[in-house]
């Protein structure tokens, strides 16, 4: 078993800061790939077609320019425009005003990001029994909220309280403390997918 601590310590030193949970998972996945392990090897969970379609439906591949490329745009639901977003809902420190990507860049970033989010969901769920539809719904939820580690619905799912967990999706419809019609509709679709056998 590889001791990853020296790798994380060195990268932390080079960056001059710590990591957020998404970055930890992304770095773990990169190490796994370098070792020839598929990203889903530790958990057995992978995002399915229904989950990928749901995320892409709600994220869209937005702000297409006349030349066919895509430009970054501010979050339309937040008061300050943060976070800046591009492609299939991709955000991060490398995305800001003036960033322009091709469709291939948008697609590649989506594949990378969604794999990391799926790993985070799998880690948060642990050994709890989880159907493919439940997993897909939770990855969509996490891709949009980043809250799989703190959400009550995760705790309820781990306890096997699936009906109660399903009801929790509807609580995540706010941006800057305001209910958003789009988030309400997205959470309803995620809850529906979660509840399917």
TrEMBL record:
Transmembrane segments: none annotated. Gene3D superfamilies: 1.10.530.40. Its EC number is 3.2.1.17. Pfam families: Phage_lysozyme. The keyword Hydrolase applies. InterPro entries: Bacteriophage_GH24 (IPR051018), Endolysin_autolysin (IPR033907), Endolysin_T4_type (IPR034690), Glyco_hydro_24 (IPR002196), Lysozyme-like_dom_sf (IPR023346), Lysozyme_dom_sf (IPR023347). It is an enzyme of class 3 (hydrolase). Belongs to the glycosyl hydrolase 24 family. HAMAP family: ENDOLYSIN_T4. This is Lysozyme.
């Amino acid at each position: 078993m590889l001791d990853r601590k020296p790798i994380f310590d060195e990268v932390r030193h080079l960056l001059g800061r710590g990591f957020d949970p998404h970055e930890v998972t992304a770095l773990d996945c990169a190490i796994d790939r370098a070792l020839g392990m598929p990203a889903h090897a530790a958990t057995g969970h992978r995002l399915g077609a229904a989950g990928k379609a749901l995320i892409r439906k709600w994220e869209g591949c937005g702000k297409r320019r006349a030349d066919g490329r895509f430009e970054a745009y501010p979050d339309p639901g937040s008061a300050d425009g943060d976070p800046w977003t591009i492609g299939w809902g991709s955000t991060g420190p490398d995305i800001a005003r003036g960033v322009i990507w091709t469709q291939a860049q948008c697609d590649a970033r989506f594949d990378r990001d969604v794999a990391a989010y799926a790993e985070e969901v799998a880690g948060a769920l642990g050994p709890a029994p989880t159907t493919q539809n439940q997993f897909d719904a939770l990855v969509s939820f996490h891709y949009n909220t980043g809250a799989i580690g703190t959400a009550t619905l995760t705790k309820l799912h781990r306890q096997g309280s699936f009906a109660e967990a399903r009801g929790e999706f509807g609580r995540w419809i706010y941006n800057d403390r305001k209910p958003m019609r789009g988030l309400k509709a997205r959470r309803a679709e995620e809850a529906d997918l979660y509840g399917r056998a």
